[in-house]
Amino acid sequence: SEEEMTSEDEDCSWIQWFCSLKGNEFFCEVDEEYIQDDFNLTGLRSVVPNYDYALDLILDSETEGLTEDQQQIVESAAEFLYGLIHARFILTTRGVMAMLEKYQRADFGRCPRVLCEGQPVLPCGQSDMCRTNTVKIYCPKCEDLYYPRLQRHSNLDGCYFGTTFCHLFLQTNPQLRPPTSTEKYVPRIYGFKIHPSAREREEEERRKQQEQLQAALPSIRRGNPTGGVSTTAKKGKR
What we know:
This protein has nine helices and five strands; from the N terminus they run ααααααβββαββαα. 45% of the residues lie in helices and 6% in strands. The protein is elongated. It is mainly alpha-helical.
């Protein structure tokens, strides 16, 4: 009923609400106790605008006296701050456990490579710097990076997951690391493998064409590059 939904919304914390939003499925819920410990947030005050307001919003403290525009600015800052806290939290034992549950449900998706046969993937950043790269997915089977399958995950900042997490996760849970995929797709024509010499012939043909082009360039430069009537000829006809 409508009353039950209202009650659920009131009972829902900001963190639960944020992680339940479409597009935020890669995030786990950071423990409030972790966020309340100032040591865990060292250095973030200088990076996040409106830090105190943003932190209060994350911890469901009252942020009174703000206009609608100011509230939107604080909400944006809170999302940024939560992402940075999240990157640190998932490197802790509690954080790894929270992400383990999501990995086992394949919340992060599966490897798009056919030969990996639906291997679950992990979120991975290409940089620990903010606003450098969007999040990618890492496949522990083929050990490669891919773009997330869903467009809504393509806007997440990679620094919210960092460069360390997925590798630390697999070291912490070695039983989850699949055997590295050694199988490779083999191109065939009419059922026969393409011999390496075919590729060599292609390369040789391409090299010859480039050499012929290079040899023809000086004569083109010596001639009329425009291929039109010369200025002198035009003047003679006047």
